[in-house]
Amino acid sequence: MRQYIYDTEENIRFLKQNAKDLLIFGRRFPSPQGSSYYLGDEGLPMTERPRETWITSRMAHVYSIGYMMGDERSKILAAAAIDGLRGELKDKTNGGWYAGIDRNGNPLPDKQCYAHAFVILAASSAYLAGIEGAKDLLMEALEVYDQKFWDDAEGLAVDTWNTEFTVLSDYRGLNANMHSVEAFLAVADALDDKYRARAGRIIDRVIGWASSNDYRIPEHFTKDWQPDLDMNKERPDDPFKPYGATPGHGIEWARLICQWALSTYGAGSDEVRSYIDVAGKLYRRAIDDAWDCDGAPGIVYTTDWNGRPVVHDRMHWTLAEAINTSSVLYRITNDDRYKNDYEMFMKYLDETVLDHDTGSWFHQLDENNRLKGTVWPGKSDLYHAFQAMLIPYSETDLSIASAVHRKHR
């Protein structure tokens, strides 16, 4: 029987092998122009689906890291994705990046903060990997973000413009802000530390909302940043704006808070201890609400505001973030509860979520852990799964691309 004990050679080998398998699985993502096809169950391109900016950016990020880890083929794939972001996904008339393009190359409507944050992440990782054009892409992406999405008065990002950048949606959301924090920390580590303070401004606002809501984070807001707790109550399994609390995001915020606090204040400071305490509360609330709460292992997609499950499906990314955050919190605190959780999550991954036939992860399972594809058909990208194979043994105060760059340079 496989052992899942943290910090053993067997566990380290398991993660390393799965990272390699994921890089192999995803190799067929690039379209002829570089934008990323959505991948199916076997890793074949789903050519009828749009080629989206956020998926292309995630693939550029993953394969940039793969190249820094020594996989030479990853350089070609990362470069292809960067070409896609500099080419057909870029709006050369209005600026910024389309949400994506359809199968015929026509742009999808709107300009999303979520997608632009991933362009920043992709460009910063590719810059570290030495991919041609990455630094120019990064500087342009930061300029567009600063001009169109960052609201300095609020210390938060707005969410969605129309394609022409003339009409701003009244919707405000924390998913885009969470990935903005991730992108800002990546840029701070790779190029310009001023973005670290900006990430902290977002984090402090989120902690305020979470602490006043029993550490279940509101996701959706009005244009005045008032929580809209009933949004999408009639469409609770929306892939980007689901109703209620999203425990996986509580877990993901916890890790980002740890990374930001450690990189800002240094280990052992009073400030770090305060933020780590908050991160632990966010993590524990999410796990207590969502893990094995309906008679089967796995983390439910959403709960109501009292912690009762709403959408029982298990999304692969929630497990990836649980693996990441439990390992990070264990390394920071040396609390065996986090170590035990990590080992529980790894066992569930190996026995249930990992597709051993293809070397990838199943992206959506139902409440009985049977394969399902209503929200996430196929296996769109590698980002969450690949990072979960690296973060458990990477430096806790660095973004993953910078941690890999430092280790392998």
Question: Layout of SSEs?
Answer:
Layout (H helix, E strand, L loop, with lengths): L8 H17 L25 E2 H16 L3 H15 L13 E2 L9 E2 H17 L4 H15 L1 E2 L4 E2 L2 E2 L10 E2 H17 L3 H18 L8 E2 L25 H19 L4 H21 L9 E4 L5 E7 H18 L2 H18 E2 L4 E2 L2 E2 L17 H6 L11 H9 L1
Antiparallel strand pairs: 1-2, 3-6, 4-5, 7-8, 9-10, 10-13, 11-12
Question: Any overview of this molecule?
Answer:
The protein contains 13 helices and 13 strands. The chain has helices at residues 9-25, 53-68, 72-86, 113-129, 134-148, 174-190, 194-211, 247-265, 270-290, 316-333, 336-353, 383-388, 400-408; strands spanning 51-52, 100-101, 111-112, 150-151, 156-157, 160-161, 172-173, 220-221, 300-303, 309-315, 354-355, 360-361, 364-365. The chain has a 3-stranded antiparallel β-sheet with strand order 9-10-13. A two-stranded antiparallel ribbon has the order 1-2. α2 (53-68) packs parallel to α13. The radius of gyration is 20 Å and the shape is globular.
